[in-house]
TrEMBL record:
Organism superkingdom: Bacteria
UniProt similarity note: Belongs to the flagella basal body rod proteins family.
GO molecular function: structural molecule activity
UniProt domain Flagellar basal body rod protein N-terminal: residue ranges: 6-35
GO CC term, one of those recorded: extracellular region
Record key words, sorted: Bacterial flagellum, Secreted
Annotated compartments: Bacterial flagellum; Secreted
Protein name: Flagellar hook-associated protein 1
Gene Ontology annotations of biological process type: bacterial-type flagellum assembly
Any Pfam family matching the protein: Flg_bb_rod
Amino acid sequence: MALDLLNIGMSGLRTSQKQLNVTSHNISNVNTPGYSRQSAEQKADDAHWIGGSQYGTGAYIDNVRRAYDQFAARELTQSTTQLHQANESHAQLAVMDEFISNNASKTISSMNDYYDSVKSLADHPNDLGSRKAVLENAALVSQTVNSTYDTLSSMQRDVNDQLVATVDRVNSLGQELATLNKRIQENPAGEKNDLFDQQQSLVNELAQYTKVTVLKGKDNLANTVIIGDGQTFVSGTESSRLTVIPGEPDPLQTQIAVDDGHTTKPIDSDSMGGILGAMVGFRRDVVERSIDEVGRMAIGFAGQVNTIQRQGLDLNGEQGQNLYADINDPTAMAQRVLKPVGSTADLAVGIEDVSQLQLGDYKLKATDNGGSYRYQVFNSQGEEVFSQNIDVADPQVIRVDGMKIDVTQPPVDDEIITLRPVRLGGAHMAMSATEPTDIAAQRIVTPDAENMGNGQLGALSTAQASGQYEVVLNDNGKRLSVYDAEGKKIDLVEVDANGNPTTTKNIKYPIHDNVIRFADTSLIPDPNGFATLTLTGQAQGEDRFTVNLNAEKAEGDNSNLLEMQHLQTQKTMNNGRSSVIDLFQTLTTEVGIQKMNAEKFGQISQLDFDAANERVASVSGVNLDEEAANLMKFQQAYMASSRIMSVARETFDTLLRAV
């Protein structure tokens, strides 16, 4: 009897001691991040059957349970991803907003200074000092645009560098999780709770960088960790490795890929979430879009200024030449095309109508149908904006969204060609004119105000020709005619770039290169004959152009400068909805709105995170008041069990003395 009593007391003593240990462990880790409260689960020992009755034999600790709710933990993991994605987006956008705001004011100010100098020159068209001021302000616009482009490109490279550093940390977390899973497998059941806490802390840290889904194994022995929308990152004790690879076809559009030791597979960046998703989204939707907008603005400004320049006479009485580098320089046209490695395709992208230019990349596909090619062009939203069959014998020319795509060698079937009409516009902007006398103040070509097309007429030579002429397209826009000041139709001959005649009369429009040069047949082959004119762009039926050819410059004529001034406010961009200056102002507004939305999203995400964290804390957190009460309770139980053992000893001694 005393022996049974002693065993019962010993079991109670051991049970209370373990409960005191667990409680003390809780109290010690009250401030440990990620710690989950533990509790010792006490059960009664099996009873003994004696004399027809059952008698208890004490108690034991069956398990040390970790206070954990997988649904609350999953909610915290998801809210962690959302919060850090929002915070990263807001931080990046705050930097961009400050940069764009500062540079917008500089760029817009430089453009307005240019237009102000043009207005001053219009008052004194022959003043060399005023002409020099125009050149200097024009150069300042170019320098400001170049600087903006360079800084944005630097931001793009910085994001790529940040991606590499972040991916390195993600890989470290994967290795730590795999190592921890191995330790969990090797440890006895009673020692796993703290390891499970470490595991959850690593998962929550990983969730800062990307979306995480955790699949529990049997008895939580090893977890499978999935990132993004289904990419296995950790499987048991093995971890894959993320890497950053050059983009295809643009190396600067780096991609995140997973390397499982055998293959490297790119991951859909839109599915990543967290800091990684925020970085990729910021680079694509903000930085690259801003670079495109700066490029569109540069092309629009330079292209329109150059067009007006070519429609006037300079101080030397010669046709005005480009003020800025030609937006359709062969090198620039070729650099607007990105081809896959090894592609034999040969394409060039020219700009015909700056008002129709859109942002983003285009994708071009060609299908060989035997006697023709079927071309398809998709915009940055994946929408098909062009689909047409072109006979092999015809010029392979595609016109879409202000672009003129010349195809010398079509891509092979299923090959994707990337077109970027405006991405490098900010980098290519440069001065072409160098002398104050180069500015064309006197207008010689005037498009009719009711013209429906965007065709532009420029004079290539005005040698020994004078008078006023009118160039008219017929009703379907396929042929053109030239009339003199008395309305008499002039016989024409088409000439090549060197002024040599190639075709007589009936000038067709458009032709392959969309450039038509023609001269008065009565003056051919006189090399100093009628001015050779060039028609570019996409004119339409019934469009008219007045050409005022004078061998000598009219002193004080500022008609071309007045036309130049109109560009400051004319809605010549974005399909007639914006001026060039409006584009930058709109970009500033868009970035500011994105920053504000990111800030609001961050505030909402913070509330969700706090609520999830509070829910986890309510389940797993340590309550010092509760633990203090448990400490007193288990201490009393320990002392009571000690007393049971004392009673057992006294009883045993009494029995021995009675013998």
